[in-house]
Specification:
The chain is 47% helix and 11% strand. It has helices at residues 34-45, 74-80, 89-105, 123-136, 162-183, 187-192, 200-207, 215-225, 236-242, 244-248, 279-293, 295-310, 312-317, 320-323, 325-329; strands at 22-29, 48-51, 56-60, 67-71, 111-114, 118-119, 151-155, 233-234, 263-264. Strands 1, 2, 3, 4, 5, 6 and 7 form a seven-stranded antiparallel sheet that branches. Strands 8-9 form a two-stranded antiparallel ribbon. The two termini are 27 Å apart.
């Protein structure tokens, strides 16, 4: 019987289209081969495995869409989709280079399991899958010093209104220190800059009581301070969905996927640890959503955080991640 905490329910139950909200889940790991991982996932969800190159597998049969298992290395994936006939010098050279790169990458590049957008109540199925993968030998960030593996959530927005988006940003920025402490991010991931915190100047701008920009200004401000995917809460997929040309003019990165979701990148993947699952990161994320839902409490938190950031002595004496707990307790 699992001793993990239950996955708490949503506050915002429906998406911007009025349907049940969905979420995409991405989990990085090592310790298993592409085919081994694909077969375990396929068996768990009763799916069919299709080969999509030497380093990618598509798992078909889920009404929500295709699951994907892939090596998280774009160059190798592109090479893996090319047929090697071996009847020319260039084919042989490419094959040799690919083999060398594959051998080197296996030491540091994770496999990634990517779900389709699934309804939130199916997260329990993902939690059960994590337990199976752990038993099968999957390894996460703390299993090897060089592992810098993450788990990412892509929850659909309950509304695409600019004010709602700003509320999510305000809530996340106010709770970032608390979330980061709770997540206990591995030093290797911190060094790699995959989940850099937001610049202090941007934080101060967003949490100001009069910061309620329209969509164009919101996106422009974000791009001015954050022209990168490497943020704990990456807004670029959502902003590309809303205004592709505006985003690509500043952050033209092929890895920015256009989708009406937030992209929460902070948590480590500690798959392989028996007590680990998606429950803690999910339940902590819901504190952001609860704060978004409660506008009056959000205003109070923003005001308190502004005061804290404006006083160096306060920052020296106290830690914001401890002070903000008082506001979280109001919802208990």
């Amino acid at each position: 019987m699992s001793t993990k905490s239950p996955l708490k329910p949503l506050v915002f139950t429906h998406n911007f289209e009025g349907n049940k909200r969905r979420i995409g889940v991405e989990i990085e790991m090592s310790g298993l081969g592409v085919d081994e991982l694909a077969q375990i996932v396929a068996k768990h969800f009763n799916l069919t495995v299709k080969t999509d190159g030497r380093y990618e597998r598509l798992l078909k049969g889920d009404a929500a869409g295709d699951w994907k298992v892939e090596l998280d290395f774009d160059l190798l994936k592109r090479w893996g989709r090319q047929e090697r006939l071996g009847d020319s010098f260039m084919d042989e050279l490419d094959a040799s280079l690919e083999k060398t790169l594959k051998t080197l990458s296996e030491q540091i590049v994770p496999l990634e399991l990517v779900s389709p957008p699934i309804e939130m109540d199916r997260l329990v199925e993902v939690e059960s899958l994590v337990e199976q993968l752990t038993k099968a030998g999957a390894e996460g960030t703390s299993d090897r010093w060089r592992n810098a593996f993450g788990m990412q959530f892509n929850p659909e927005m309950p509304s695409l209104d600019s004010q709602m988006i700003v509320r999510f940003l305000k809530a996340f920025l106010c709770l970032y220190d608390w979330l980061e402490k709770r997540a206990d991010i591995n030093l290797t991931r911190k060094i790699t800059s995959y989940v850099d915190p937001f610049p202090r100047a941007y934080v101060l701008k967003v949490i100001a009581p009069d910061y309620w920009p329209n969509q164009d200004q919101l996106i422009d401000d974000y791009l001015s301070y954050n022209p990168t995917r490497n943020r704990a809460l990456d807004m670029l997929p959502l902003f590309r969905f809303l205004d592709e040309s505006r985003v690509l003019a500043i952050a033209d990165d092929v890895l920015i996927k256009s989708r009406p979701t937030l992209h929460y990148r902070l948590p480590d993947s500690e798959i392989g640890q028996p007590s680990w699952g998606i429950h803690q990161a999910w339940n902590d994320w819901l504190e952001v959503e609860k704060l978004v839902f409660d506008s009056a409490r959000l205003d109070r938190v923003c005001e308190a955080y502004q005061i804290f950031l404006a006083h160096p002595i306060e920052r020296f004496v106290n830690n914001w991640d401890e002070l903000v707990v008082t506001f979280l307790a109001e919802d208990r």
